[in-house]
Here is the input.
Amino acid sequence: MNEHVVNWAITAKTLAELWTPHPGQSKIIKALFIDWIKDLFIEAGRNAGKTELLSYCFWRYAQSFPGTENYYFAPEQKQAKEILWSSNRIQNFGPREWLLGGTQGINHSEMRLKFRNGSFIKIDGSDNIDSYRGVKPSGLVAYDEFKDFRPEFHETFDPNRAAFNIPLIIIGTPPQEDGHFQAVADSFKNDPKKFYYHAPSSENPYLSREWLESKRTELYNKGEGYIWEREYMALRVKGSHNRVFPMLSDKIKIDPSQVKEIIHRDGRKLEYILWTDPGVVTVFGVLFGIFNRFSKELYIVDEIYEKDKSNNAVSIIGKRILEKRDAIRQTEWRQGYDEAETWFQREMLDQFEESFEPSHKHLNDKEDGISLIKDLMLKHKLFISTQCAQLFWELDNYYLDKHGKLQKKNDHLIDCLRYMLGALHYSLTEERFDPIKEYGPRKLKQGGSVWDLNQL
Here is the structure.
């Protein structure tokens, strides 16, 4: 029998006597050591057993393949030390006799384990990216807590694997924002030659079911179900202390057919308003809204989000605005623009004889405007047509910066919504609909019947 096969079998048998993987961990171990898959991505919940899994994989790989250089990376070196080294989890995982004797086998300053067969396991952080630009390891590589990695680390380090065609394990809990984690995870998920695995916390049979259920109930009761879903179910969901509109959900969406029903049903209760955020070299944004001044419901029924600057000339975009406006309803509209872009107002008047009012930013503080949008959502007064995909995306992906401040990016349509609310002098106080005041003291003939407006 081949000497290497014997060595691999003895290694696997010895480690199996020290640690038993649960079924989910066994699938990953099989993919790496039996199926010889070189690219593995595990999207895992908290306490899914990833630390023990990685410790096992590194010890088994280093002992099975003499002379290999094996690297574990956490987002930062300090974090790597806390996860694996300070607790002695990696040092004590396998048989001590596999390591060099004395202090040679465990180098605390370098966080390096040296094996008698010439292999080593090195613990480090992705913050040391410059140290690894030319390193071409010959063994297993793993990224832990990948969502917190510097995005450029994988781009810089990954080509180094080609020299020895070595395996890579990427593991971590999904992040709260879209970014490099999702992009890399999806590239693995959609490639049949690569291995992708979803591992919620509940997959670990050693975790208390009672504790998990208690944590789930606690988080949902606090309105933080998104934390349970992301951190423990390992699902990609929005929601965090940095998210500006955590209350946003699909319940806010309405179908275009519902808009027609609203126009037909509420008639003269409605006001029509559109607002523009003109851009020449950036995005040109426009929102079209219908406002019920009695119920205080605001319906955003259409949008324009033009990124191609060749289409942002007023002769083109102005015509497009007016066509969309009239397609919704040919009636009197309030029309506005970001007051900083006076060129747009002048050109619309010159080319189309259409007047637009300025936004009066000094009267509409941005934080107050954002707070008002939140109130509308919480009071179920804001509805967005499914035709307004870009507005929904902006609201869904609007986050505070690291200093807790509102960011000035991806907010063109959010600004239009703020200006629109400011122009309407919006308040949540509902008004009573008075048909006599609206229609006058007369009778209205409708559908063959005569209605007495005093009885409406």
The first helix runs from residue 3 to 18. The longest strand covers residues 297-306.
